[in-house]
Automatic annotation (TrEMBL):
Pfam families: DUF3558. Signal peptide: none annotated. It comes from Pseudonocardia hydrocarbonoxydans. Residues 29-48, 64-84 are annotated as: Disordered. It comes from the Bacteria. InterPro entries: DUF3558. This is DUF3558 domain-containing protein. Residues 30-42 have a biased composition (Low complexity).
Amino acid sequence: MTTSPRIAAAIGAAALLALLGTGCQRPVDPAAGTASSPASAAQEAGSTEPLDACALLPAGQVEELIGPHDGGTPSSAPNSNGGGCVWENPDNYYSVSIDCGQTGTAVNGLPEWEPALGPERPLPDEMREFGANSGSVQFVADTRDCLTQVVRSSSGGDLDAAVVLARQIRDDLG
């Protein structure tokens, strides 16, 4: 059985997010971060509640990006205050993904780049592309190592749309 390019791109994107998500869930000293929002204040106070990443984007905004979608599927590691969400259009496999690590996973900015991932591709606002043509952007929100991805074609992701979402999420969490 042959996998279509759209399905292959969706599977690759999910694997990339899963890989990044497991790396973002490191134990953290809650005193390392600075609270500037009610959500981060609760997490700094020692809360282990996961971040509701699906609440970070309104359904209408996701629909503007990928069309009708499944409403978002949350993800988080056990005992973590990080979280993620993936919205998928079941008709064309377009998707929007968010993954934010625990508070304190990026206290000093983005983690050091892993050369095995290929050349680092810096973006504006202290962000970087995470995977060529994947539409993935790695960024820091408050003190969290985060990733967002927008896939709107069978040939790859939409980097510009992912940067817009990264800025929005950074501002909402920061």
